[in-house]
Every structure is written in structure tokens, then in C-alpha cells.
Specification:
This protein has 485 residues and is of the alpha/beta class.
Length: 485
Amino acid sequence: MGATLRPHQTRILEQIDQAIADGRRRIMVQLPTGGGKTIIGAAIAGKTVDAGQRAIFTVPALSLVDQTVEKFYREGIYDVGVIQADHMLTNYARPIQVASVQTLQRRIIPRADRVMIDEAHRWYEFYADWMSRPEWADTPFIGLSATPWTRGLGRYFDTLIIGSTTNELIEAGFLSRFRVFAPSSPDLTGVRTLAGDYHEGDLSKAMDKSGLVADVVDTWKERGRGRPTLCFAVDRVHAKNLQQKFIAAGVVAEYIDAYTKASEREAIARRFHAGEVEVVCNVGCLTTGIDWNVCCIILARPTKSQMLFVQMIGRGLRTADGKDDCLILDHSDNHLRIGFVTDIQHDKLDDGRERQKQEAKPKEALPKKCPKCTFLKPPKTPNCPACGFKPQPKCDVVNKDGELVELRARAQQQPAEKAQFYRELRWIANNREYNSGWVAHKFKDKFGHWPNGLTYLAPLKPSIETLNWVRSKQIAYAKTRGASW
């Protein structure tokens, strides 16, 4: 038997069915890493088989083929064939085909009544050609991605379903809470920008210097030891150097890149989960589709890309037994440059024109770090919402080299009123045994937005004002239901 679908997964399936019933045939589903995109794919595949129809589930990496088949099996979907080279499960007669895009684009595509494109932000021109063929015009194509923000993706998909946000899944307990520590900014002077992100060659030279602020290995030994860790580096040379520095410091560290054989990668994963490997240094290959039990992320790879940033952080947000939170050691300045993963939201697909409009808008000010307590303050907030500190004009603040400070997600820096109200809602929910979603919805009811990033705050006994506010809402709700209070 498969897993019981979570509320957001059931809601997504209903929205997909409704979109198809409304005549939509190009549907994109946005759901954070760890939200269960493959489970949704398995549910669609199961319904397709039950209806006597066929489906194709495509993946962009060879390593994801067997992983997807295993997940389908766990969900009770066994009648699966594989389209990948000479795979042992090759069987075109089976109604569900799991296909690597690399192999599929070189073969005749089998008939299908549903097509699912996993990790759809990794776009191939083959997909565009396939979707444009007349014989596939009426076949629903369903994209699945945590970050469907690739430029021009809106030209191929006409419907975006936002299944849930990272903050909502953290609040519901489906994703892990996280803490971020960050050093002072690395020196990226002279690093050029290419295709919207840092020039890799320039970046490697800048990040591989021995004099970098906040040495990666020492920081991890101080704060992250005992936590299974993924370290994201700039390129192969940088990643190998980091691995060797960890080994020299007595840390069991492995290295993975795009050329690491599947068998070797699987062996490293087994040792990682057995606790025999403490840190895995990688470059460009552990950002999508891995389900490892990661409790610490090292960001040694600066980026301007929200997609890459969210995918890296997402590797550490899956929940696990005994895992209280994910520790993020940001040696890249990414959080101060981009924001926090709970802040990043897109409500539409990019059709190529929207990005131009966004780039023409003035860029919002970034949060500032409180020099006293290290909280990040919202823009144009002179007093720190956490400790009340107000910097004096022309006051020079000097940070020691290598010193790390904890960052709070942007919503964690909201004015004290919002933080207190959220804590009081949590106390009420805990004592009345309300589900976690009640807190988020009541907060939004009062302030007009979700409590992004506040989930780290502990419950607080509510004030009379808060209790009265909650009571008034319950009375109003009861009246709408025709009940008496």
C-alpha cells in the first residue's frame, strides 16, 4: 500500500483534475523539495492505470530513473517499464513508462494518455518539440518542480498550480525548520557575471583562497559536527580541495561530481546514511532528486540564481527521525544577497517578457544585520525588532575574520507585535490541540500575509487582547454557520 496522501497532495490532485476538466492541457505544479512531487506522480500514474490508460514519467538524470521506480513500487505501482539505454526493466507493453529524457529523445515515443515531466525547470528543447506535435495536442502534460522559474517556461505551460509554500510545509511539520549562520561577506571583487550568475572560473579563484573569511572546515567542526552534511562547492577543483581539507582535519569526507559512477555514488550514499561518512563535497550534482538524510548544509558556492539557491537549501529540509532542524553554514553571502528560502515565492510562470518587466523595477532593499544581536532587520527599520538596538550615525562596526553570526529568516525579523502574536497563537493551538495550519491562517487573517520564517519562535502565554481577538473570530465563524456561541 502507498503512503496516505497529505492534505496539500490531495488538493494538488484535485486541482490537476479540475484543470484538465476545464480543458487545460499544459499544467505546471510548483511544490517545494520534500513536498512529495514523485508521490503525486505515482498517484496520477495509479489513476491512469485504473482507467485502463497509459502514462509516461520523464526524469532529467539517469540517477533518477531507478529512484523513481522504487518510489512507484512503494506506492503500489508495479506495472512499470523503463526507457533508458538497455535497462533491465525495458518493456514498452507496460502502461507506465519511466523515461530518461536523454534516451527518450532518441527513440519513438510510446503512446500515452498522461505525460509527467519531473524537475521541469531543467528544460530541454525536446520537450517543446514533443508538446507541439499535433498528435499530442490533447494529451495533458504535467510539469513537476520546486522551482519552475526557468525563463520562458510560461510559453509552454498555461496553468500554474502552487501546491504549497516552504513555510507552510515547515509550519505543518512536513519540512524541517532551519537555522542559518553566516560569515562576513566573501570578497567577490572582480568576479564577472555570465548568463545571470557568477562566472564559474572567476568564482572558483575567489572562493578557493586560503585566506577566506570563516574557514569552512573549522566552522563545521565547531558548529556542525555530528550532523550528516552536504557541502556545495563552485567547481571540481574547489570541491576536491574542500574534501582534502576536511580529511586533513580528521573528518571523513567524500567527493561527488557529475562524472562519479552510479555504483560509487550509491556506495557513498550508503556510508553517509550509516554514519561512516560525515561530509560529502559536491559540485553541481546533488541539487535535485536526492532523498538523503541531511542535517547540515554548507554553502561554499555563491550564486545569484534563486533556483540554484532554493535547490541547494532544499537538500536539507526533509524531515527525519531525531532531526530537530537543519543547520545552514553560509560561507557564500547568499542569504544576504537573495534572502531566505521561506521568502522566495513566484505566483506566475516566466514567459520571457515578465522577467524584463521585473528587471525594470527598482530592486527592493535587502535586510540589514543587527550588529548587537545578529538578527536581520527589515529594510528601513532603524530599531532592531528583536533587541531594540538602534545604531548611531557614522558608527563603524568591525567584525572579526571568521566570525559567524546566526541569521533569521526575513519574517523572523518582523516587528515585535507580529512575533508576539504568532507565539501566542502557537500557545493557544498547543493547549487546545488545534492543528498547525490554524496558527498560520489566523496570523494571515490578522496581518494579511503568511507567517513566513516565524516557525522557530516558541509558544508564549497569550495576552487578554489576543484571546479576545481569537474569541471574536470564533464567534463570527459560528454565526456564519448558524450556530450559537
